[in-house]
Amino acid sequence: MAKRIEDLKVIENKRLTNDFFILKLLSGSKLPDLKPGQFAQVKVEGSSETFLRRPISIHDVDFELNTFKLLVQEVGKGTKTLSKLEKGSLLNLIYPLGNSFSLPDKNEHILLVGGGCGVAPLLYLGKYLKSNGYTPDVLLGFRNSERILEYEEYLKIGEVFLTTEDGSSGETGYVTNHSVLLSRRFDRVYCCGPDSMMKAIARYCNKNNVACEVSLENLMACGIGACLCCVVDTISGHRCTCTDGPVFNIKELKW
Amino acid sequence: MVNLGFSIGDLHFKNPVLTASGTFGYGSEFEDFFDISKLGGIIVKGTTLEPREGNPYPRMAETPSGMLNAVGLQNKGIDYFEKVIYPKISLYDTNVLLNVNGSCIDDYVAISERANFLEKIPAIELNISCPNVKKGGMIFGTNLSSAREVTRAVRSVCKKKLIVKLSPNVTNIVDFARIVEQEGADSISLINTLLGMSVDIKKMKPALSTITGGLSGPAVKPVAIRMVWQVSQAVKIPVIGIGGIMTADDALEFLLAGASAVQIGTASFINPLSSVQIVDGIENYLNEKGFSDISEIVGYINRKA
Fold first, then answer.
1. Which residue of chain B comes nearest to A224, CA vs CA?
2. Which of A74, A102, A186, B49 measures 20 to 30 Å from B84, CA to CA?
3. Which of chain A's residues have a Cβ under 8 Å away from the Cβ of B269?
4. pLDDT tens digits for range A58-94
5. d(C-alpha A93, C-alpha A85), whole Å
6. What is the mean pLDDT of residues A206-229?
7. Can A4-97 and A110-214 be said to share one CATH topology?
8. Measured between alpha carbons, how far apart are the two ends of chain A, in Å?
9. pLDDT tens digits along B163-176
């Protein structure tokens, strides 16, 4: 599957919360095969301080209309510039990049776990699983009720369980505190979120003998395996998050 | 038809645009984007005798108009290169150069001897300027007698064209250029990265695991051009300019200042097509200015009217 560099048209820039927004992009040609877990390297124009591209995961895809969405958190100058993109402007992307989540075995009970911005790749994964006959449960964690992202969208995938750190929605605490982890037995977990959250979920999975894949978010320059900046320590040495990942089985990681 | 070719001795390059070591992988990473054979040459990832894991993460930090890296020569070693990479990379219809590294002179010599047997590798680039390894690297490139010693030792065994890549982290780079020329280098490439540092104020600690790293990108370009200008007037061998070249205009600055060729580095991370676009841009410039040969503009700014 060939990577491409393309100017895509921004057809929607929707604000979700104070610091999250969604860019909907239209390709001028047929979309390549985009797999759940893959990402794009997004060029940010007009600032010497955003010299490098920004790696952002594919949030949702519509192959019929040749559009896809990026869920972006405003964390610095680069993402702030992206947040101000107007409808009709062009955005230069290198995509699709990275590996993808592996498909579960038949009849497996699946849980998707996302925290904050980490929910981004899980929507496309969930929809993909659903269209392939799976009914995953979804566990999402946010700081508070005002920061909940796309709750209704995840409801379309399966049963959704919520935690907030302040208890303003769902159960109080972190995702790892949620009662569903005790009340149900899962065969496979797909997880994306802050490192501390993924490590806690990895501990849960290792303890309960549950298969688990996590999507990492290391700092990277090129995104195509040339610079070797984004490495993660694995049982087979340093491996690139951009090409060997971003999705890793937790058994490969030295966590 | 403009002649874009340049030569190091009897080694001909179809155009003056090469990709810098450590920024272009082994070429295959860029195959989806363009035909690698359109380049003047590619210089592969810095290679050592033994496999190396490089430095711990984090080893990159974005900086204004540039980036710091502290990769630390992660590579799978010369055996892997010979067995796995070389058979594929030697199929490109361009010059493929090996960037050689070591912790001590014996390492540099041993790897250069191995390179002698790689028929499709016409030249090696001696990296005495990597700022991100504890042993070797920049230590050789920032001390005149060490630079002399390692160049002499490698020259005595190397049957290929020998390019020596210089460090900018010295008081007078011209002294180093003269010494490696005296010791038989066929060409000089400069500059490697500038030693730099960045602090993460949220975490209140250095941005890189190694604390210091190598600065690259447009931020270093004026320093690189100045050094190319100085060195190219002090030596007779061809100088290859490196440092923050993002566009053909940038490359032309280096050529006009005295570089016979250029290497494209960090630019490939942001625009994978930059190297091949620079080839086209240089050709357009020569056509527009009415030159028929690239050599007519090399060092143009130094010519007396």
1. B29
2. A102
3. 52-53, 221-223, 226-227
4. 999 999 999 999 999 999 899 999 999 999 999 999 9
5. 14
6. 97
7. no
8. 31
9. 999 999 999 999 99
Does the structure show a pLDDT above 70 at A1? no
Per CATH, is A110-214 categorized as 3.40.50.80? Answer: yes
**Joined tokens for residue B52:** 């190396």
Class of domain A4-97: mainly beta
Task: Count the neighbouring beta carbons within 10 Å of the beta carbon of residue B76.
Answer: 18
Q: Which residues of B are catalytic?
A: 130
Q: In which band, very low, low, confident or very high, does the pLDDT at B305 lie, cut at 50, 70 and 90?
A: low
Which amino acid type is present at position B163? Answer: I
Q: Is the pLDDT of residue A174 over 80?
A: yes
Per the listing, tokens 């006959």 go with A133
Contact present, B148 and B110 (Cβ < 8 Å): no
In order of their start, the domains of chain B are: 6-54+73-194+217-302 (3.20.20.70)
Q: Where are the domains of chain A?
A: 4-97, 110-214, 216-255
Q: Smallest Cβ distance to A218: which of B57, B64, B74? A: B57
Is residue A215 classed as helix, strand or coil in its secondary structure?
A: strand
Please choose, from the candidates A115, A105, A185, A188, the residue with its C-alpha nearest in 3D space to the C-alpha of residue A149: A115
Cα–Cα distance for residue pair A231/A244, rounded to 1 Å: 9
> In the structure encoding, which two tokens stand for residue B234, read together?
């002090």
Q: Is A93 on the interface with B (CB under 8 A)?
A: no
Averaged pLDDT, B83-102: 96
Count of Cβ atoms closer than 10 Å to residue B175 Cβ: 12
Complex ipTM value: 0.94
Q: If you measure CA to CA, which chain A residue comes closest to B24?
A: A226
**Using the beta-carbon criterion (under 8 Å), do A53 and B58 form an inter-chain contact?**
no
Rounded Cα distance, A110 and A187, in Å: 6
CB A47 within 8 A of CB A176: no
CA–CA separation, B227 vs B245, rounded Å?
Answer: 14
Task: Name the nearest CA neighbour of B218 among A53, A52, A42, A82.
Answer: A52
